[in-house]
């Protein structure tokens, strides 16, 4: 049974006239008549009573009209769901993110995405960059957000936001009175930082930057979470070099200062190359770029 036959039947039932029904569905009258006869042959019972003045439905036709309308409505909904899925408007999206992004960037992106795509179920998973890469390869997440460049050939990535490093200082530190610093100003300071095995690329980037100024940072305390590191700064244990958007974390006892010539760290979105980029992932990337661009990213 073809959907066009059902459309022709519904048009005829509502117009009660072959000529008007044919015009409504954009076919000639003979084609509409043949379509109704084919439908009756398939159903096995008469559906319409034909007279010279009007068309009436048989009792079987009246019952068939109810089901025909329901079938056409369901078919329309099914087509629309497929089209919405192709536009990334329905489905499920699992996002991996490094912990620091929960304090800047991620909440704004997710809030906006949920506003625009309320029928997409969003699942957030806090993972290190290494864990995200493994989860992407294994299909446990659809897209990852991290601060590190990705060199795995099975993964594709796109920079979303570029942020300079800044100095996080104890509020009572002498350097906190300056409006802007040079990296050489931090020579001889105690540092708090991530363990290298957690953020190797980030760690090495900072070490090279300091080495270019003629010193190696003296790391006195390590922690894996940004809020913990900032708490150590507030306690006066050392200074820290986070990316700029972490300055949104207004922690008592911590001040942030820009540094001349600071390296730029990219926040990147990553997805599995083998899976291709799904419509939902494309929609998410578009929202992320818009949100971070409006927030001042490049």
Automatic annotation (TrEMBL):
Gene3D superfamilies: Periplasmic binding protein-like II (3.40.190.10), Winged helix-like DNA-binding domain superfamily/Winged helix DNA-binding domain (1.10.10.10)
InterPro entries: LysR_HTH_N, LysR_subst-bd, WH-like_DNA-bd_sf, WH_DNA-bd_sf
Protein keywords: DNA-binding, Transcription, Transcription regulation
Annotated HTH lysR-type domain residues: 1-58
CDD domains in the cross-refs: PBP2_LTTR_aromatics_like (cd08414)
Entry similarity comment: Belongs to the LysR transcriptional regulatory family.
PANTHER family: HCA OPERON TRANSCRIPTIONAL ACTIVATOR HCAR, TRANSCRIPTIONAL DUAL REGULATOR HCAR-RELATED
Protein name in UniProt: LysR family transcriptional regulator
Species per Swiss-Prot/TrEMBL record: Deinococcus rufus
